[in-house]
Amino acid sequence: MTSEVRHSADLILFDSSIVGGSGKVANPEDLAACVGCAGTTDFLIAGGLNPENVRYALPFGPWGVDVQSGVEFPVGSHQKSAARIRAFVDSVRGGAGRS
Predict the structure, then answer these.
(1) Per-residue pLDDT tens over the stretch 6-55
(2) What long-range pairs does 24-33 form, CB within 8 A, spacing at least 24?
(3) Which of 44, 48, 75, 85 is most buried, with most CB under 10 Å away?
(4) 45-89, pLDDT tens digit by residue?
(5) How wide is the angle at C-alpha 13 spanned by C-alphas 10 and 15, nearest 5°?
(6) Is 42 within 8 Å of 49 (Cβ atoms)?
(7) Cβ distance 25 to 17 under 8 Å?
(8) Any idea what the Cα angle at residue 28 is, between residues 49 and 6, rounded to 5°?
């Protein structure tokens, strides 16, 4: 990511390259490299996040996290589950995010 791109963005979204609601978060080494390129620009982490794994994204210090299929029940139904949304938010609030 070039300095020019970084300085023209208010926020950067890092998404997993794994397609289709896999529940697999981006490779930690790849994510660390991306986060390093963000410099001082705030960023979001998306892709494969769910209540059970979002805690692994938080130590990277995102401004926020994104979830879509990770809170569906039944899985693949495109129906959001209130219980899974609550669990996701609880996991984020209980995690080691930005200080």
Answers:
(1) 678 899 999 887 666 566 677 888 889 888 888 888 999 998 999 999 99
(2) 24/48, 25/49, 25/53, 25/56, 25/57, 28/56, 31/57, 31/60, 32/60
(3) 48
(4) 998 999 999 999 999 999 999 999 999 999 889 999 999 999 999
(5) 175
(6) no
(7) no
(8) 90
Given the structure tokens 């289709």, which residue do they identify?
20
**CB pairs under 8 A, 24+ apart, for 77-85?**
84/50, 84/51
* Residues 30, 84: Cα–Cα separation, whole Å: 27
